[in-house]
Amino acid sequence: MKKKTVGQPKSGDGDTVHSPLVTYASMISLLTLCPPFVILLWYTMTAADGSVSETWNYLKQNGVQGFLDIWPRPTATAYKIIVVYGLFEAALQLLLPAKTVYGPISPTGHQPVYKANGVAAYLVTLITYMALWWFGIFNPTVVYDHLGEIYSALIFGSFVFCILLYIKGHLAPSSTDSGSSGNIIIDFYWGMELYPRIGKYFDIKVFTNCRFGMMSWAVLALTYCIKQYEENGKVSDSMLVNTALMLIYVTKFFWWEAGYWNTMDIAHDRAGFYICWGCLVWVPSVYTSPGMYLVNHPVNLGIQLAISILLAGILCIFINYDCDRQRQEFRRTNGKSTVWGKAPSKIEASYTTTTGETKRSLLLTSGWWGLSRHFHYVPEILAAFFWTVPALFNHFLPYFYVIFLTILLFDRAKRDDDRCRSKYGKYWKLYCDKVPYRIIPGIY
Ligand code: NDP
After folding, report:
1. TM segments (predicted)?
2. What pLDDT does 17 receive?
3. Sorting pLDDT into bands at 50, 70 and 90, what band is 353?
4. Suppose 224 and one of 73, 174, 257, 291 were both cysteines; which one would form an S-S bond, judging by CB atoms 3.0 to 4.6 Å apart?
């Protein structure tokens, strides 16, 4: 008998992955545990020397009241920083000159149109931030000093934001790619709209995922570096390696931002708590946490080790980029690009949309995509390891992001496989026969 499953509501091309029990349990746990986790992570990194056992002992002694005592209340300063930053990024998204880019055609036949100005927004943001510091107008250490309050304000503010998204999904969806699963928790958690917009041009997911979330990663990486400099009069080589790698990674992201608009986050995952709260709160806190740790732990690696880690990290970021580039060039040229100097090997697949139309698509089966079906996750995880390892091994917590990312990407590979199987049917099976490993060639 076919197991009944629940999960993300259809964006039209396949949906369910886990059993109802697992789905509800994971949704409820993430909704309730992520907010306090963000606060505990910040507290442990900044006030408990990065030591999980120190925080644990504190909580054991002081109980729930102790936890409430360390949870910073959102302050006016925190809200001011968030609102000014958010408005600045929204203005750049709307106003900077941009190339018009078309997203993938959705299962209901809708094709989103974007303004691609990510690199310009990234450069303007970082130059403005550094200039504000350099000319003494705003000191980034203020952000670090109010980090707990900022996370607290983000936690509550983003929750309200997701409620508004839910209401908008019901009352005023922006496109045909919208709908309810019939369950309020699923609708809130997974979202209702695939492409919510304000007006014709302001794309909400581009704002939450790219211009707020990913941009804050770069801004906070610089903030941590500046904080260490202002505290110690110099920046340790471990902090330099960490900041350089995180900035290279985020630069790569904005360089490739229009490509990101073709990925699962944008083209398949709807705008709800999972994606939007994740990008507004989890990215600025958890993704940046190795740098947050290093502020008060200026490890000295020595030039040789520092350069080795830096080069290994850059190589991983490059391979990850090249995997994405290879797939997108292959699709863009309709299978006519060269892959590792040769004509690509491919599967010509077809699938049926929700409106009953038959469409064709190509699956690349050579290059990185011939090693395993999600090989790009291997360099993604390794890159995160390399920007964390400058913290060395005194504490476990700086490695939380690497562990979280590994779990996230292994789950994502399964979700994507399931989705592609239901979309492409026998063609996906052909791909699995030809490329049997899901992530790690020869192992998994
Ligand atoms: P992608 O969306 O880029 O790739 C998966 C999609 O590609 C599939 O859904 C399918 O879509 C298509 N596809 C699958 N196999 C093939 C093939 N052989 N040939 C052509 N197309 C294929 O994946 P992700 O969104 O997961 O990853 C994008 C990037 O983002 C990666 O670099 C990843 O590492 C990174 N990432 C980072 C995360 C983080 O938190 N740091 C989290 C997630 C991703 P279709 O329906 O079009 O066929």
Report:
1. 21-43, 78-98, 119-138, 150-167, 206-226, 238-259, 271-289, 301-321
2. 56
3. confident
4. 291
* Sequence-separated (6 or more) residues with CB below 8 Å from residue 408: none
The finding on whether 416 has its CB within 6 A of some atom of ligand 1 is yes
Report the run of H or E that residue 110 belongs to, with start and end: none
| pLDDT, tens digit, 9 for 90 and up, residues 67-115 | 999 999 999 999 999 999 999 999 999 999 999 999 988 878 889 999 9
CB-based contact 272:220 (threshold 8 Å): no
The Cα 248–Cα 84 span in angstroms is 25
Half-sphere exposure of 195 (CA within 13 A, CB side): 24
15 lines ligand 1 (CB under 6 A): no
- Of the candidates 79, 90, 80, 81, the residue with the CA atom closest to the CA atom of residue 124: 90
What digits encode the pLDDT tens for the residues 115-174?
999 999 999 999 999 999 999 999 999 999 999 999 999 999 999 999 999 999 999 999
Longest dimension (CA), the chain: 68
Question: Using CA of residue 19, residue 22, residue 26, residue 29, what is the dihedral sign?
Answer: positive
Which residue's CA is the nearest one to ligand 1's atom 13?
363
Residue 375 CA, ligand 1 centroid: distance in Å:
10
Q: What token pair was written down for 240?
A: 């330099």
CA dihedral sign, ordered 273, 279, 284, 290: positive
Residue 1 pLDDT > 50:
no
Count of CB atoms situated within 10 Å of the CB of 52: 15
How many Å apart are CA 149 and CA 77, to the nearest integer?
A: 8
> Using alpha carbons only, what angle is made at residue 150 by residues 149 and 154, rounded to the nearest 5 degrees?
115
Please give the distance, rounded to the nearest whole angstrom, from the Cα atom of residue 323 to the centre of ligand 1: 9
Residue 11 pLDDT > 50, yes or no?
Answer: no
Residue 289 tokens, joined: 């946490």
Atom 28 in ligand 1: residue holding the nearest Cα: 263
Do 64 and 145 contact (CB within 8 A), yes or no? no
Ligand 1 contact via 324 beta carbon (within 6 Å): yes
Dist. CA 187–CA 166, nearest whole Å? 7
Of all protein residues, the one whose alpha carbon is nearest to atom 7 of ligand 1 is: 263
